[in-house]
Amino acid sequence: MKKENITKILSALDQEYGIGKDGFHHHKDWQLLIAIMLSAQSTDKQVEDVLPGLWKKYPAIEELAEAPIEEIEETIRTVGLYKSKAKNMKLCCNQILSEYQGVVPKELDQLVQLAGVGRKTATLFLADTYGIPGVTVDTHVLRISQRLGWAKGKNPVQVEKELMKVLPEDHWIRINYQLIYLGRSICTARTSHCDRCILEEWCEKKNLNKKKSDKTKLDKKETNKKSVNQKNVTSKKSVDKKERKVDAKNAKNNKIL
User: Fold this and answer.
1) Torsional sign, CA 157, 6, 124, 74
2) Interatomic CA distance for residues 95 and 93, integer angstroms
3) Which of 85, 90, 120, 206 is catalytic?
């Protein structure tokens, strides 16, 4: 994709979805990490709805680390995958206390060793807490990046590296939520609603589909043309056969005479 088109796409995304996103409600770094963990496979609203009650019940990391899993489950029940998240929250808090003296580590390699913390969660945490730029890749970002022609990788790590080469660094953090919003409403996994997309003009998938459509129409036209030609050949053969029969019959009659 041309660099000028990338610039136009990023500008359109900034205008449509903004350049900043409010972080989750929290008072301490460990709470933000937990909030981001909860956001996986859940909407921001679902997470925001449970956070006030969660922090009121467990204001200190030690309290969450010591809480019964069943009690944590009940507190976050309205969030998707709440059972596995409750287990990881408790394990994660215990790891932070035992391995890092209650302070959330600042290194990506250390963060991803914590229970329930994947590369996306770790990158978002570092970006929101310390302003460390990084590209986070979920299913929406991976899918749309491929459709736009920005990436060809088949997994998040490959696509992350490709996007860091394609995109300006000041867009690394916000590209995640911008493409998530676009992916949820327009460029969905099941159907890409190109007619309603603000990026339609520069999208390689849309242009590729148009080329395929044009090629299909051309192939169909060629097939119809061949079919007509074949019918003409068949018709001509039929006429020639009838003429030969007439000639043979005339020759026979002349012989008799």
Assistant:
1) negative
2) 5
3) 120
* pLDDT surpasses 90 at 20: no
Residue 150, sorted as left (phi over 0), alpha (psi -120 to 50) or beta, turns out to be: alpha
Looking at the chain, how many residues does it have? Answer: 257
pTM of the model: 0.74
Amino acid, single-letter form, for residue 227: S
CA distance 136 to 175: 8
Q: What is the pLDDT of residues 92-110, one digit of tens each?
A: 999 999 999 999 999 999 9
| From 21, 29, 57, 138, the catalytic residue | 138
Contact 122, 94 (CB under 8 A): no
Phi then psi dihedrals of residue 41, to 5 deg = 60, 30
H runs (alpha helix) in the chain: 3-17, 29-38, 44-57, 61-66, 69-75, 82-100, 108-111, 119-130, 139-148, 156-166, 174-185, 204-256
Token pair listed for 215: 């090629």
* Contact criterion met (CB below 8 Å) for 16 and 198: yes
The verdict on whether 241 is a catalytic residue reads no
Q: What value, to the nearest 5°, has the Cα angle with vertex 178 and ends 174 and 181?
A: 145
Is 152 annotated in the active site?
no
